[in-house]
Every structure is written in C-alpha cells, then in structure tokens.
Amino acid sequence: MRLIHWLAVIPFIGMLIGPVLHNRVHPLLLGMPFPLGWISIWVVLTALIMALVYVLDPRNREE
User: Fold this and answer.
1) At what angle do helices 9-21 and 34-56 cross, to 10 degrees?
2) Where are the domains of the chain?
3) Residue 40: which H helix or E strand, with range?
4) Which of the 8 DSSP states describes residue 1?
5) What is the dihedral angle through the alpha carbons of 58, 4, 7, 49, rounded to the nearest 10 degrees?
6) Contact in structure between 41 and 29 (CB atoms under 8 Å)
7) Residue 36, H or E segment
8) Nearest-CA neighbor of 38 among 18, 8, 12, 16?
9) Which residues pair with residue 32 across a beta bridge?
10) Cβ 29 vs Cβ 37: under 8 Å
11) Can you name the residues that pair with 29 across neighbouring β-strands?
C-alpha cells in the first residue's frame, strides 16, 4: 500500500477520536454541540482528503 493511500485513514481516525475524547455540549463548533460540529467538519475534510488522494494517485493519470 502506498503512502498516499494511508491518507484515507486520517478521516476514519478523526471522526472517531474527537467525540469520544470530549463528549460535552460546550464548546460549540459552528453553533452546534461539539460532537456534531466535529463530525460535520470531518465530513468536509474527508471530501478534501479523498480529492487529494485521487489527485496524487499515479493510477488516475492518463498515459
């Protein structure tokens, strides 16, 4: 497995660790309770990271 494919593990870890470590209403993120705001931010970050993996993967380039 290439190093760029390990980038796909980052969203998985990010979505699981945040709410587990700090499962409280305050602080608010984007006006939402922390766990909901954390997951919402990671949904957007996941799309960006997957786009980066797609761009960096040499198998997606035309020959």
Assistant:
1) 170
2) 3-57
3) helix 34-56
4) -
5) -30
6) yes
7) helix 34-56
8) 18
9) 29
10) yes
11) 32
Tens of pLDDT along the chain (63 residues) come to 678 888 889 898 988 887 788 777 788 878 888 888 888 899 999 999 999 988 888 887 776
| pLDDT value, residue 27 | 84
Helix (H) or strand (E) holding 32: none
Render pLDDT for 22-39 as a digit per residue (tens, 0 to 9): 777 788 878 888 888 888
Q: How many residues does the chain have?
A: 63
pTM: 0.78
pLDDT on residue 1:
66
**Token pair in block for residue 44:** 């957007």
Residue 42: per-residue pLDDT = 92
**The two structure tokens encoding residue 38:** 């954390």
Contacts of 14 (CB under 8 A, 6+ apart): 42, 45
